[in-house]
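Example S7 (structure tokens).
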């Protein structure tokens, strides 16, 4: 009986070791991703009232923009009966919907982009180095947390905070990564791209 107990315990220990060994890579990955530091900015906290059968039910809606100031940014929305719980839900939702954006050598975008969401329409254009982010509302917050430093953005139509933020995310998702990889690697490619942009501006003027 003792030998049977010992063998059973030995089998359990071996199983635990094998299970732990199989879970080691997952633990390393989770710890690696958890070390990433994200900056959070609360854009709006709104009280929402819903009429139900028993009367009126009041909840809170929080809009949070999250990013690492390098290349990742996301927009999260959370609803709850408590403000703190709504903010936590919005942060978790934003981390789930992170996107990566292309950055050029002067912390701008590779080309002009336009997008719309609902009644909101925005246009984002690259700017020269030292210009800063010329934008307003939630668009500026999204661009700052994405890591951009030289951009020009304009919003048309509705001034809804959430729709403008989502339109900005859609626009950044449409950017061409190949332009960043191909035209901004060497000095020769930079000068070539600048000449093309000058011709484009002269023709439009």
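Recovered sequence:
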């Amino acid at each position: 009986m003792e030998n049977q107990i010992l063998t059973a315990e030995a089998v359990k220990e071996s199983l635990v070791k094998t299970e732990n060994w199989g879970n080691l890579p997952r633990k390393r990955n989770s710890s690696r991703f958890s070390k990433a530091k994200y900056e959070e900015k609360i854009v709006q906290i709104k009280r929402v009232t819903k009429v139900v059968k028993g009367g009126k039910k009041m909840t809170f809606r929080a809009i949070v923009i999250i990013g690492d100031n390098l290349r990742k940014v996301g927009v999260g929305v959370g609803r709850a009966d408590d403000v703190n719980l709504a903010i936590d839900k919005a942060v978790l939702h934003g981390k789930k919907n992170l996107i990566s954006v292309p950055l050029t050598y002067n912390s701008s975008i590779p080309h002009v982009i336009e997008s719309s969401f609902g009644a909101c329409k925005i246009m984002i254009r690259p700017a020269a180095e030292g210009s800063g982010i010329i934008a307003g509302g939630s668009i500026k917050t999204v661009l700052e947390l994405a890591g951009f430093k030289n951009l020009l953005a304009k919003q048309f139509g509705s001034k809804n905070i959430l729709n403008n933020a989502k339109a900005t995310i859609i626009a950044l998702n449409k950017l061409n990564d190949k332009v960043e990889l191909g035209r901004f690697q060497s000095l020769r490619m930079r000068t070539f791209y600048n000449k093309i942009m000058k011709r484009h501006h002269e023709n439009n003027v």
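Notes on this example. Residues 39-99 form a domain with the Double Stranded RNA Binding Domain fold (CATH 3.30.160.20).
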